[in-house]
Amino acid sequence: MRMLLVWLINAAALFALPYLMSSITVDSFTVALIAAFVLGLVNTFIRPLLVLFTLPATLLTLGLFIFVINGILFWFVGTFVEGFHVGGFWSGVGGAILYSIISWALSAILLHDNTV
Question: How many CB atoms lie within 10 A of CB 69?
Answer without folding.
Answer: 19
